[in-house]
Design goal:
The chain has one domain: CBS-domain. A two-stranded antiparallel ribbon has the order 1-2. It has a two-stranded antiparallel sheet with strand order 3-4. The protein is an alpha+beta fold and about 150 residues long. It is built from 5 helices and 4 strands; from the N terminus they run αββααββαα. Helices cover about 35% and strands about 15% of the residues. β1 and β2 form a beta hairpin. It is globular.
């Protein structure tokens, strides 16, 4: 009997902390600190992902460029090539997507609306897919400074 491949829905985190395009860098940094996260999807009123802000974005783009902490997320967020997966995406395909896109976290969307987050760590914890996760981690680590 063939085992059904695990899907993102089996490993995704559903308690998603989001922000709006008008929230400030300071407010997003506070959310990151309060929730011990480094990735905040920026969503519209209908929960559609418009972009993302990472802790690295805040340091490299905002702080290093002397942006005021009152700058809205819409001026800082990454919007180009925002990759997402669905709850029905296989874990193997998710690992591949992360490796190809050099990302550690992906928003999970259902009918265009955010329903979760999946991280490289979530993927790596699945023993049968350790090789795929390891390859993805290697690709991401090679191209992004620690």
């Amino acid at each position: 009997m063939t085992q059904k491949p695990e899907m993102v829905r089996d490993i995704m985190q559903t308690d998603v902390i989001t922000a709006t395009p008008d929230e400030t860098i300071a407010a997003i940094a506070k959310k990151m600190c309060d929730h011990d996260i480094g990735f905040v999807p920026i969503v519209d009123a209908s929960q559609h992902v418009l972009g993302v802000v990472t802790d690295r974005d805040i340091v490299i783009r905002a702080v290093a460029s002397n942006m005021p902490l009152t700058t809205p997320a819409k001026q800082l967020m990454s919007t180009s090539s925002i990759q997402t997966v669905t709850p029905d995406t296989s874990i193997a395909a998710t690992a591949s997507c992360m490796g190809e896109g050099l990302v550690r976290r992906l928003p999970v969307v259902d009918q265009g609306k955010i329903v979760g987050i999946v991280t490289l760590g979530d993927v790596a914890q699945r023993a049968p897919l350790m090789h795929s996760a390891a390859q993805a981690l290697h690709r991401v680590a090679e191209h992004q400074p620690v």
